[in-house]
Design a protein that fits this description.
The complex is a heterodimer of chains A (about 160) and B (about 250). In chain A, a hairpin with a 5-residue loop joins strand 2 and strand 3. In chain A, helix 4 packs antiparallel against helix 5. Chain A has a five-stranded mixed beta barrel. Chain A is of the alpha+beta class and about 160 residues long. The C terminus of chain A is likely disordered. Helices cover about 35% and strands about 25% of the residues of chain A. Chain B has one domain. Chain B contains nine helices and no strands. In chain B, helix 2 packs antiparallel against helix 8 and helix 4 packs antiparallel against helix 8. Chain B is globular and about 60 Å long. The chains are: A alpha+beta (about 160), B mainly alpha (about 250).
């Protein structure tokens, strides 16, 4: 290769490497701010600030959803299967909200350790399957894994 | 190999080869994309949880793939511009940037449309969505910078540096869903593993991705040919070509 081109190539490589390192260090330093939400373990360990608007994310615990009969109030627990946090919410939940599904809630943690949410978003996972396959999976693992909820969710989202 | 590489730098040679390949790219691209879309949108089974709304994946994923691939291609061409000063590399970066911008916009837009019924919101500032928005701005910046500088050569070099600086964003987009907590789900397709999706869903998706890549190839050739004719209008071969075209 021509020496001038070699020199230019080295400069280009240094440029890209330098920027990669700079951006890498910046994002590493800001990693907590880039995370969209705190997980229940962090909140239970007291790493999340109290009375500051934060997001909490995890799975809706099985059998923890309690809806108020005459208002839109809902109580449920968000878990990462290591720790769980009680969540209070008033409003309309997204279609995909169901027990055993992922959610991200926005709101404040109060002094009793209850997360008062003002927005609840459903988090979808990377798995896709036809309803028949999901049903077959249900039948083969009956009882141990969110049987009723999947059907309920499938009904509500079938539009 | 070097001979081929230097030949590639000749606009005239590229013009000829592009003219020969373009009908194939267009025909196969349209067939694959149509097959993928019709199969995916009308015949593929619906998802157990999302019902029919997941079908936007057949548009969202191909455009998002292209948005990132085009940027990687532009960055490779930018290295060629800076090191070898090859004319054709400049032409590629310049003509393909608006295409990348459109694909990035489409993937953001289809994502937002899907996000509303699925997540419950159009937009959330998570790492994946934000880094994709930065990609949109990088494309916009490259286009604006190119337009802002009158001299063709200095414009090409400035744009090449900008594109190279922005290339760090690509691994951030790719791995954002693994490095940080995001609302966007992790990749369904992985190079090393089986997709977490049944065959009758991922085959149409693969078809539409391949089709869109081929159509992009066609569009890139078309745009590059136009740009080459504009730039080389004073040369003999272009004059002859135009004369022949007039008949």
């Amino acid at each position: 290769m021509h020496p001038i081109r070699k020199k230019r190539l080295t400069i280009v490589l240094f440029l890209v490497a330098g920027i990669a390192i700079a951006v890498g260090l910046t994002t590493f330093a800001l990693r907590q701010n880039i995370n969209l939400f705190y997980d229940p373990t962090e909140i239970a360990a007291g790493n999340a600030p109290v009375d500051v608007r934060i997001r909490a994310g995890g799975m809706v615990e099985e059998g923890s959803v309690a809806r108020d009969t005459d208002s839109l109030k809902v109580n449920f627990r968000v878990t990462d299967y290591a720790a769980s946090v009680p969540v209070q919410y008033e409003g309309i939940l997204p279609d995909l909200f169901a027990e055993g599904q992922g959610v991200v809630a926005m709101g404040r943690l109060n002094e009793h350790g209850v997360f008062v949410a003002d927005q609840v978003l459903a988090k979808h996972d990377e798995n896709y399957m036809p309803p028949e396959v999901a049903e077959a999976l249900e039948r083969s693992s009956k009882g141990q894994y969110k049987s009723a909820d999947v059907e309920k969710a499938a009904e509500t989202t079938a539009y | 190999m070097w001979q081929f590489f230097h030949k590639l730098g000749s606009p005239k040679w590229f013009f000829g080869i592009a003219t020969r390949f373009m009908p194939w790219l267009l025909a196969i691209g349209i067939i694959l994309l149509l097959a993928g879309l019709v199969w995916g949108l009308a015949f593929a089974p619906k998802d157990y949880l999302q019902g029919n709304s997941y079908r936007i994946i057949f548009i969202h994923v191909p455009t998002a793939f292209l948005a990132q691939s085009i940027y990687i291609m532009m960055a490779s061409a930018a290295v060629v511009t800076l090191v070898w000063r090859m004319k054709l590399a400049d032409v590629f970066v310049k003509t393909v940037a608006p295409v990348g911008l459109v694909f990035t916009f489409l993937s953001l837009f289809t994502g937002a449309v899907w996000g509303k019924p699925t997540w419950g919101t159009w937009w959330v500032w998570d790492a994946r969505l934000t880094s994709m928005l930065i990609l949109l701005f990088l494309y916009g910046g490259a286009i604006a910078l190119d337009r802002a500088i009158n001299d063709e050569k200095s414009a090409a070099r400035a744009v090449a540096v900008l594109v190279l600086v922005g290339v760090v964003n690509i691994p951030i987009i790719k791995y954002s869903v693994e490095w940080w907590n995001t609302l966007h789900q992790p990749a369904t397709f992985k190079l090393t593993e089986k997709p977490s999706m049944p065959v009758e869903m991922w085959v149409p998706l693969l078809l539409s991705v391949l089709g869109l890549y081929l159509l992009f190839g066609w569009l890139a050739c078309l745009r590059m040919k136009t740009e080459i004719v504009m730039r080389e209008q004073k040369t003999r071969w272009v004059r002859e070509l135009v004369m022949a075209g007039r008949g």
